[in-house]
């Protein structure tokens, strides 16, 4: 379990920074809520006249802006974006860090199978993501409760908060896979940001043309908060797609890592 | 000159990947547009009635006719900015910091050229990379936009202006990347700093978008510098913010030369 512990130690600082970033965004959105709430009643009145299909296409079928959950459901995507960057970055880092610091020979000459090494790293990765989500949830909850009024929609908040974890799994899997492809991955952040933003942009395009057919392409449309609001659960098909991507790419990454020719 | 050639060659593969990503993005977006414009009229009518508070939260253009190719294309500016900022920022941070990371700093900086000159050549190589990416973006955009353009008037010039705005912003992020590399201890720290800058200024631009009262903070977020509607439809590229971008980029470059000039290089 030494590798597991070492990985945790190495990523604990980025974990705290990214969680702080997510919380900062969350509380900034909460503060802005007051400026929107004034218009909210008006907005709701106008929306009442819109056909249901149209509202469903835009993802606000049952959304009321005068309700905090409804307001946050539009903005949670940005918090998911920060989480996705952390998930991808950590996913890319864990299996490729030794290549960059030229410590592969040190690690891999230990009396452990490569599969074991990779497993401990994967376990650390999952724990890091889980801890981040729990931290975010615990520290954001007081803010949510303080503004949510008399009957806070707790279930929605739980679903929204942990949707970050689900999206992170997608990117962690892709990250693990991409990181073992080149002989030595030189830099983590360029690949991370480019891939995450590409998926994010695909989601923005989907949203603006009201098209759902391509929504399976990007994890940002798997657990959209506005959907969670009307459904009050994760959509099984998207959940399956999300986990399938995670398991498939993680398995591929393990397979390549076990056979890979490592240059010390 | 050897250094310039070497840098261009070293970045050629990644530049090609970036160009392909850009072409894919424009192609995919335009294919979606083609499907959308045939059914979009009803959507348009409803969009026009949306209250502005909701429009601000959804992040869609206000009262915009999305079936017009010019309006649709103007959405791309945000995508270009996001990808362009990552490309330029990371390029700037790593082109300088990679020598120490790859332990080739002693090799390069013991050559009989001044350190400042090496930095400036790397800067030139990075600017050329950005120019190529923007040129590809511009040409591919014009081809696709003109294909769907039914307005009669050519949109080539407004598209060129949009990409020009992108170029100024990329220079700004490139400068920030260089400065981060000169100031930070390692390539890793430099690229992390640039990531924070990109994500932070992007989220700031979102916050300003939601609450118009915070407009004065716009100067802190390059994502707010150019109003794509003004660029696209009034053909107005704000000279003030263009100058500010260039000025900030130049300041960063000067800071880099100064800091890197007295840096204790780890071999």
Describe the structure.
The complex is a heterodimer of chains A (264) and B (267). With 264 residues, chain A is mainly α. Chain A has one domain. Chain A contains nine helices and no strands. Chain A is elongated and about 65 Å long. Chain A starts with a helix and ends in a 5-residue tail after the last helix. Chain B has one domain (2-261). The radius of gyration of chain B is 20 Å and the shape is elongated. The interface between A and B is large, with 50 and 52 residues. Chain A: Pfam families: ABC2_membrane_2 (PF12679).
Q: Biggest interface and its residues per chain?
A: A-B, 50 and 52 residues
The number of domains of chain A: 1
| Uncertain residue segments of chain A | none
Q: Spell the H/E element sequence of chain B.
A: HHHHHHHHH
Structural class of chain A: mainly alpha
The count of strands of chain B amounts to: 0
Radius of gyration of chain B, taken over Cα atoms and rounded to an integer in Å:
20 Å
Strand-residue proportion of chain B:
under 5%
Terminal CA distance of chain A: 23 Å
Q: Compute the number of strand runs of chain A.
A: 0
Question: Radius of gyration of chain A over alpha carbons?
Answer: 20 Å
Shape of chain B: elongated
Organism (chain B): Papillibacter cinnamivorans DSM 12816
Pfam families (chain B): ABC2_membrane_2
Transmembrane segments (chain B): 12-30, 71-97, 118-145, 157-181, 193-212, 241-261
GO molecular function (chain B): ABC-type transporter activity
């Amino acid at each position: 379990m030494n590798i597991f512990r070492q990985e945790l130690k190495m990523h604990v600082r980025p974990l705290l920074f990214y969680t702080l970033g997510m919380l900062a965004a969350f509380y900034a959105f909460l503060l802005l809520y007051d400026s929107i709430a004034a218009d909210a009643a008006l907005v709701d009145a106008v929306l009442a006249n819109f056909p249901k299909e149209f509202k469903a296409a835009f993802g606000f079928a049952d959304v009321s802006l005068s309700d905090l959950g409804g307001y946050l459901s539009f903005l949670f995507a940005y918090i998911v974006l920060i989480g996705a960057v952390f998930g991808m970055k950590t996913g890319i880092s864990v299996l490729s860090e030794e290549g960059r610091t030229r410590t592969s020979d040190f690690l891999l000459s230990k009396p452990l199978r490569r599969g074991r090494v990779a497993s401990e790293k994967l376990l650390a990765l999952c724990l890091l993501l889980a801890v981040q989500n729990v931290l975010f949830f615990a520290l954001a909850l007081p803010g949510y409760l303080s503004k949510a009024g008399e009957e806070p929609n707790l279930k929605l908040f739980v679903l929204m908060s942990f949707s970050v974890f689900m999206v992170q799994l997608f990117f962690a899997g892709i990250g693990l896979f991409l990181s073992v492809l080149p002989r030595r991955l030189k830099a983590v952040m360029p690949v991370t940001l480019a891939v995450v933003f590409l998926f994010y942009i695909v989601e923005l395009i989907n949203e603006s043309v009201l098209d759902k057919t391509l929504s399976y392409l990007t994890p940002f449309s798997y657990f959209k908060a506005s959907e969670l609001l009307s459904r009050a659960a994760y959509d099984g098909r998207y959940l399956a797609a999300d986990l399938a991507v995670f398991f498939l790419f993680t398995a591929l990454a393990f397979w390549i890592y076990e056979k890979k020719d490592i240059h010390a | 000159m050897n250094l310039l050639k070497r840098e261009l060659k070293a970045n050629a593969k990644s530049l090609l990947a970036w160009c392909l990503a850009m072409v894919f993005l424009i192609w995919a977006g335009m294919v979606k547009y083609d499907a959308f414009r045939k059914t979009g009229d009803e959507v348009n009518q409803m969009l026009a009635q949306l209250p502005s508070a909701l429009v601000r939260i959804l992040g869609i253009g206000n009262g915009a006719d999305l079936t017009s190719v010019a309006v649709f294309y103007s959405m791309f500016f945000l995508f270009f900015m996001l990808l362009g900022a990552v490309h330029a920022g990371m390029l700037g941070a790593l082109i300088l910091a990679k020598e120490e990371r790859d332990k080739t700093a002693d090799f390069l900086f013991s050559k009989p050229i001044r350190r400042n000159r090496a930095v400036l050549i790397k800067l030139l190589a990075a600017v050329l990379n950005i120019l190529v990416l923007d040129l590809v973006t511009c040409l591919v955009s014009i081809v696709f936009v003109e294909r769907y353009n039914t307005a009669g008037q050519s949109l080539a010039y407004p598209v060129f202006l949009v990409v020009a705005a992108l170029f100024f912003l990329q220079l700004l992020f490139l400068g920030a990347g260089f400065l981060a590399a000169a100031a930070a201890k390692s390539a890793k720290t430099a690229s992390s700093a640039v990531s924070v800058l990109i994500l932070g200024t992007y989220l700031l631009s979102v916050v300003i978008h939601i609450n118009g009262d915070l407009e004065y903070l716009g100067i802190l977020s390059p994502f707010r510098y150019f109003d794509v509607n003004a660029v696209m439809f009034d053909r107005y590229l704000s000279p003030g913010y263009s100058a500010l971008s260039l000025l900030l980029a130049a300041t960063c470059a000067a800071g880099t030369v100064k800091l890197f000039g007295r840096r204790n290089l780890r071999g």
